[in-house]
Design goal:
The chain has 16 helices and 14 strands. The protein has helices at about 5-15, 40-45, 60-65, 95-115, 125-145, 155-160, 170-180, 195, 200-220, 225-240, 265-270, 315-325, 355-360, 365-370, 420-430, 440-445, and strands at about 80, 245-250, 255-260, 280, 290-295, 310, 330-335, 340, 345-350, 380-390, 395-400, 415-420, 430-435, 455. The strands form two sheets. Strands 1, 4, 5, 6, 7, 8, 9, 10, 11, 12, 13 and 14 form a twelve-stranded mixed β-sheet that branches. Strands 2-3 form a two-stranded antiparallel ribbon. By secondary structure, it is an alpha+beta fold. It has one domain: Alpha-Beta Complex (Cathepsin B, Chain A), CATH 3.90.70. The longest helix is centred in the N-terminal third of the chain and has 23 residues, at about 125-145.
Length: about 475
């Protein structure tokens, strides 16, 4: 049994790293020749005058936007869900996965109870319990792998000690927390300074994880006492979550209403949403389609459901998103938001910056290769709320983000919503969460089966959005 982890590591190393002999699929392996730079060859190199473009005092991204782009048109959509939420704001935290999930649920909730569009569920409530559960999951995982006596520079140990208690998450983490702890309105358990600015708390919790790992290697430690200490710490930062509450609110006609003696589970039931009805679909062109992929150790509850992602072609994914939007249901998705983003106009467009033309360079990695070389990862979650048809072809999608309306200015007010071109979606969207009722029979049947392949925690799909 002690060799289980070692065997897994070697398997992952062989499959995903494969550096020996230039890699199994590597052609034209470099010889042993080396190129030492000779300064004399470069000091007086002749350069064509056209290369002297003055970009050193200007934003390169602003210089590369073609003047032919009609930026205002990006935010016109022919098909949208009927009622859009007022944009939410995760502020200085990495809770996008949680906000995106709650935004999908609250849209239905707002329509059902005829609420104003600014109603929100308490993100602080789920944040509290996610931190507590995730800390417990991490210390138990450290205890589980301790008998293997892994070195401190082991890849898994490094992730657990430096990245396990961060704010980021995944759909399975969201569903785990909602299923176990339910929901409550934001006005019952509102944001605190630290729930909106999590850096201080994260630093403290990470130090506690490292201290636990130290004592685990050298002594026995009282886990119950440690968990009590962490619980009290979370109360100091976030407040203590109520177990029963009255919900007072004004509906969209400004009529006062109140519901008495609610619990978080009862409030979740009021949403008429079953979080287990959803399937996570990915587009990972590195790997075979129509298989279920897991990610080892990616969880936040000891008893929680792990990752299950069904890998499908991009065209199928987009058709399912369209079907959900047409039925007035927004779609949770994860993407690489760092690529080709024009933040001042809330635009995601792979052709918005002419980087290669402007700098006379070239990049030729395709989507699969960008994943293989860690050039891209799904690092942010949002909700798709609409699309635009141009001659029966979708050319862009409307996106509900959770960054507030921070780009409002005299020239542009997207109210916090983004526009994503269809080409950008092809290249930088990796996951969507779709209600199973929209899946064709073959995909639904496959998704309900066991996981076929488990990826290591350091795989790009182990990245937390």
């Amino acid at each position: 049994m002690e060799n289980i982890y070692k065997k897994k590591y070697l398997k992952y190393k062989k499959k995903y790293i494969n550096l020996q002999n230039g890699g199994k699929n590597c052609k034209n392996v470099s010889n042993n020749s080396i190129n030492i730079i000779n300064p004399e060859l470069w000091k007086n190199k002749n350069i064509d005058s056209k290369e002297f473009i003055t970009i050193h005092n200007n934003s390169i991204m602003n210089l590369m936007i073609p003047s032919t782009k009609h930026l205002d048109n990006y935010h016109i959509f022919s098909n949208k869900i009927k009622t859009l939420n007022k944009i939410s704001n995760q502020k200085s935290t990495g809770r996008c996965w949680m906000f995106a999930g709650l935004n999908v649920i609250r849209n239905k909730f707002i329509n059902k109870y005829k609420l104003k569009d600014d109603f929100e569920f308490s993100q602080n409530y789920l944040f509290f319990w996610d931190k507590f559960e995730r800390f417990n999951y991490c210390i138990n995982l450290l205890e589980k792998i301790e008998p293997y006596n892994l070195p401190f520079d082991d890849r898994l140990i490094h992730i657990l000690l430096t990245n396990s208690i961060d704010d980021g998450g995944s759909w399975n983490m969201f569903s785990n927390i909602v299923n176990k702890y339910g929901l409550m309105p934001k006005n019952v358990f509102p944001e605190t300074y630290h729930s909106s600015n999590s850096n201080d708390l994260n630093n403290i919790l990470e130090k506690k994880i490292k201290n636990y790992a130290k004592y685990l290697r050298n002594n026995n430690i009282d886990k119950e006492k440690l968990l009590e200490e962490v619980y009290l710490l979370l109360v100091k930062f976030f407040g203590q979550p109520p177990t029963e509450f009255d919900w007072e609110y004004m509906d969209k006609k400004d009529k006062y209403r109140i519901k008495h003696k609610l619990t978080p589970q009862k409030f979740y039931e009021m949403s008429d949403v079953n979080i287990n009805d959803y399937a996570v679909l990915i587009n990972d062109p590195r790997n075979k389609y129509n298989l279920n992929y897991g990610v080892e150790y990616l969880n936040n509850l000891l008893e929680g459901e792990g990752v299950k992602n069904l890998n499908i072609e991009m065209d199928i994914m987009k058709n399912l998103v369209k079907k959900s939007i047409d039925n007035n249901e927004p779609v949770w998705f994860a993407c690489d938001v760092t690529k080709f983003s024009l933040s001042k106009n809330n635009i995601l467009d792979s052709e918005i910056y002419k980087i290669e033309e402007f700098l006379n360079i070239s990049f030729d990695l395709n989507k699969a290769e960008r994943l293989l070389y860690y050039d891209t990862v799904p690092n942010h979650a949002m909700a798709i709320t609409g699309y635009n048809l141009d001659k029966s072809i979708i050319n862009r999608w409307q996106i509900e983000n959770s960054w507030g309306n921070r780009n409002k200015n005299d020239d542009f007010d997207g109210e916090g919503y983004y526009s994503m071109t269809d080409k950008w979606m092809d290249e930088y969207v990796f996951e969507v969460v779709i209600n199973k009722k929209y899946l064709p029979h073959n995909l639904k049947k496959k998704y309900n089966q066991d996981i076929d392949i488990t990826l290591p925690l350091w795989d790009p799909f182990g990245t937390l959005a």
